[in-house]
């Protein structure tokens, strides 16, 4: 396994049933983390409107900290469970939707290039000899 320095990436999944009460501190933390190898997915459950969570998503307007620093990249995705609870595949799609662009955007900003595609022989299965792996002692298999 080849490990490229700086190629690690993390996804934080937060499930909440309430609104944020410390919006400024949360925005500051997101702005501070926006240059880190991180995506934050927030799933809102319950009857709340989650208007502040939608604001954190940053799709409509880039987040700005109390000191005036702008988020370097969008790292937050908010999904309302209530809106998608009856459609599991769509819920999964929405939860994961922004992560590929967030991941590749981070790697590009750090000049981390993908590893080359591994070379696999066209006769790979024949080389493994999978048909022999099912033989049993005394005959019978294969």
Automatic annotation (TrEMBL):
Gene Ontology molecular function: any one:
calcium-dependent phospholipid binding
User: What are the annotated GO cellular component locations?
Assistant: plasma membrane
Signal sequence annotation: none
What's any GO biological process attached to this entry?
cellular response to calcium ion
Positions of the Copine C-terminal domain: 7-114
The record's listing under PANTHER family reads:
C2 DOMAIN-CONTAINING PROTEIN, COPINE
Name recorded for this polypeptide? Copine C-terminal domain-containing protein
Organism, scientific name: Hemiselmis tepida
């Amino acid at each position: 396994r080849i490990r490229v320095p700086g190629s690690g990436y993390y996804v934080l999944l937060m499930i909440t049933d309430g609104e944020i009460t410390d919006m400024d501190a949360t925005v500051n933390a997101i702005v501070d983390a926006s240059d880190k190898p991180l995506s934050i997915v927030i799933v809102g459950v319950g009857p709340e409107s989650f208007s502040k969570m939608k604001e954190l998503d940053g799709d409509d307007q880039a987040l700005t900290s109390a000191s005036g620093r702008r988020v370097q990249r969008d790292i937050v995705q908010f999904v309302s469970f209530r809106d998608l609870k009856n459609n599991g595949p769509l819920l999964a799609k929405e939860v994961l939707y922004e992560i590929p662009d967030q991941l590749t955007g981070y790697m590009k900003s750090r000049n981390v290039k993908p590893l080359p595609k591994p070379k696999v022989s066209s006769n790979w299965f024949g080389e493994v000899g999978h048909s022999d792996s099912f033989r049993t002692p005394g005959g019978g298999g294969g």
